[in-house]
Recover the amino acids of this structure.
């Protein structure tokens, strides 16, 4: 810090470039108060009728953001319902196809008729088969 001050003193000297007039700070407070009172007493001129109020310009987003938000909500609901309906119809279509295949595989003449005994026999495990053979 001392080196900085010494550098400044050696470069510019000790002479102060700015001076305050004598007695300026003694009457500064009273001078400010009298100036404020004088400005308060002056009549403020009215604005001419041709000058419009200085309202800030409003952009399109500020004007229409409520409508944009409402449209986004409606689009979200409509999209959700559409996806739900498409999924429901796809599942219904799969069930219909599965039912048609199931019915056609057992009832079609190309496969012959399937009796209840054949269906029951195909569901037997080894123990059930051994017990049926032993009983006959």
């Amino acid at each position: 810090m001392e080196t900085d001050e010494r550098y400044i003193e050696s470069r510019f000297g000790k002479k102060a470039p700015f001076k305050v007039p004598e007695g300026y700070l003694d009457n500064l407070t009273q001078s400010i108060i009298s100036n404020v009172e004088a400005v308060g007493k002056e009549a403020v001129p009215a604005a001419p009728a041709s000058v419009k109020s200085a309202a800030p310009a409003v952009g399109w987003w500020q004007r229409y953001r409520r409508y944009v938000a409402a449209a986004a909500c409606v689009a979200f609901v409509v999209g959700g319902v559409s996806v739900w309906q498409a999924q429901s119809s796809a599942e219904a279509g799969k069930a219909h196809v599965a039912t048609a295949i199931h019915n056609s595989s057992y009832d079609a003449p190309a496969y012959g008729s399937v009796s209840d005994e054949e269906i029951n026999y195909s569901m037997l495990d080894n123990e059930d088969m051994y017990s049926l053979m032993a009983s006959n």
